[in-house]
Amino acid sequence: MKKRFLIIIQLFALAAEAALLLGFALRDTDSAQDAVAVNEALQSVEADWGRLEGHGNRTGLAYVVLDGAGEVLYRTEEGLSESVNRAVVHRDTMLDIESGGAVVGKLIVFNDSAEALESGKRAVLLAIMAVALVQWGICVGYGIYLNRTIIRPFRQLKDFARRVAGGNLDVPLEMDRGNLFGAFTESFDIMREELKKARLAQARANTEKKELVAKLSHDIRTPVASIKAASEVGVALAENGRIRENYSQIIRKADQIDALVNNLFTATLEELEQLAVAPVDMESGELAAMLDSADYFGWAEIPPVPECLLQGDRLRLQQVFDNIFANAYKYGRNGRQGEGEPSGEGKIHVAMRRESRFLAVAIEDCGGGVDAEELPLLKEKFRRGSNARNREGAGLGLYISDYFMREMGGELLVENGEDGLRVTVVICQSG
Question: Residues 28-82: pLDDT tens digits?
C-alpha cells in the first residue's frame, strides 16, 4: 500500500512538471503595450509640454520624452532607451508628440516584455525545482522503504546464512511479516531448526556409537583374554611341538584381535582431534575484529586490545571465541537467545590483561556459574554442567576450544566469576 501511494505521488509530480513546461511553451509572448495606458501617457506629456519639469507619471509606464532634436527632456527612470535607434533595437513603442498642430518630439515607451519573459522563466524554474525537491524527497523515502523492507532483511538473511554455514544453529532469525521476505524468513528459520535437530541427532548418534564401541570392546576383550589365557596354559602343558605351535598361533591371533579393538576404540574417541591447527604470527589488534564478529548480538563491550605480537591460528581462534560467546548467550541470566537486547544483568563482560609471555582474554557471562565440582568436567568431551539440563547442546564446544588452544601453545581456563562462568583464553605471544 505504501509503495503504491509513493508511486502515485511520483506520477503526480511528473505530471505537474510536464504541465508547467507545457504552459510555459504555450504562453502568449505578445509584446504589445497597453494602448490605453500609452495614449494616456502621450496625452499627459502633450498637456505638460513646455513645462515638463513639473510633469508627473500617472500611468505606471516607463518612458522617455525627446525633443525634435533628439535631446532627452524627461525620463521616468534610468536605463531606458534614450534614442530612436536604441528604441528600434529594443522594440520600444514610439509616438509623435504634437503641440500646436506640429510634431515637437518623440515619446518612447519602454518595452518590458523581455523582463516579463525572464520573470516567467524564473517562476517556472522555481516551480520545477519545488516539484523536483518533492520528487527527491519521494525517492529518498522510497529508498528508505526499500532498505527497510528488502535490503536490510536480505542482509539479515545473508548474515544468518553465514552463521548457519559456520555451524551456529542456536541463534534464531528474527521474523518481520511486514516485509517482502517475511514468509521466506520463516522458511529459513524452519530450515535452521531442522538442521539443529539433525545436528543434535547426529551428536546423540555419535555418543551412542562411542558407547557401543566401548561396550563391544569390553565384551570382546573379555573372551579374547580368556582364550589367550587358556592358550598360554596349553602352551605350557603341551608336550607335542605341533600342538604347542597351534596354541602359540591362537595367542598371536588373540593379540591381533585385541590390538584391532584398541585401534577402533582409540580412533573413535580421538576422531575430533583430527582438526588441523596452524599457528602463525599475528597482530593482537586482530582480536578486536574476532570478538566483534563472535558477539553478533552486541551484548559485550570490547575493551582496547594491548599491542603485541601473538602466535595463533586465526580460523581456530575465531571458532574458540564463537563457542564461548554462544555459550554466554545460551546460559546468560536473560535466559533466551536471539531476542533483543539483554537486561543490565545479562551483559557479557570482557577483560584483557597482558603478561610477560601471554595475552589473556577473559569472557564472563551473567548466568550464575556452575557448581565448583563441575568446573573440571566442562572441558571434557560430551560433559555439561547441571545448569544445561533445559538447554540444547552436545557438550563439545569447550572441549574443542581447549584442544585448539593447547595446539596453539596457549590455554583455556574455566572458573566461576563474580556473576557467572568466566572463560579465559590465554594466547601465547610470539618470540
Answer: 545 556 788 888 888 888 888 878 888 888 887 888 888 888 888 888 888 888 8
**Please, what's the b/e burial string for 168-187 (b: 16 or more CB within 10 A of its CB; e: otherwise)?**
bbbbbbebeeebebeeebee
Residue 231, C-beta contacts closer than 8 angstroms, at least 6 positions apart: 247, 248, 250, 251, 254
Query: Cβ(243)–Cβ(234) under 8 Å?
Result: yes
Quick check: 74 and 45 in contact, CB under 8 A?
A: yes
How confident is residue 338, by pLDDT bands cut at 50, 70 and 90?
very low
Strand partners for 105: 67, 97
Residue 339 pLDDT greater than 50, yes or no: no
Rounded Cα gap, residues 400 and 270, in angstroms: 11
In this predicted structure, what is the pLDDT of residue 349?
Answer: 92
> Which pairs from 10-15 meet CB under 8 Å and 24+ separation?
10/135, 10/138, 13/131, 13/134, 13/135, 13/138, 14/135
SS3 content of the chain, % helix, strand, coil (to 5): 55, 15, 30
For the chain, the distance separating the N- and C-terminal CA atoms, rounded to the nearest angstrom, is 64
SS3 233: helix
Q: What is the mean pLDDT of residues 143-150?
A: 74
88-103 pLDDT, tens per residue? 888 888 888 888 888 8
152-165 helix and 182-237 helix, angle to the nearest 10 degrees: 0
Half-sphere exposure of 401 (CA within 13 A, CB side): 25
Task: Give the C-alpha separation, 74 to 250, whole Å.
Answer: 142
Amino acid code (one letter) for 217:
S
As a whole number of angstroms, the distance between CA 172 and CA 45 comes to: 92
How is 237-295 classified by DSSP, letter by letter?
H--SHHHHHHHHHHHHHHHHHHHHHHHHHHHHHTGGGG-----EEEETTHHHHHHHHH-
pLDDT (0 to 100) of residue 36: 84
Angle at 283 between CA 397 and CA 319, to 5 degrees: 15
Among 328, 336, 332, 346, which Cα is nearest to 401's?
328
Place of cell 523536483: 132
**pLDDT attached to residue 408:** 94
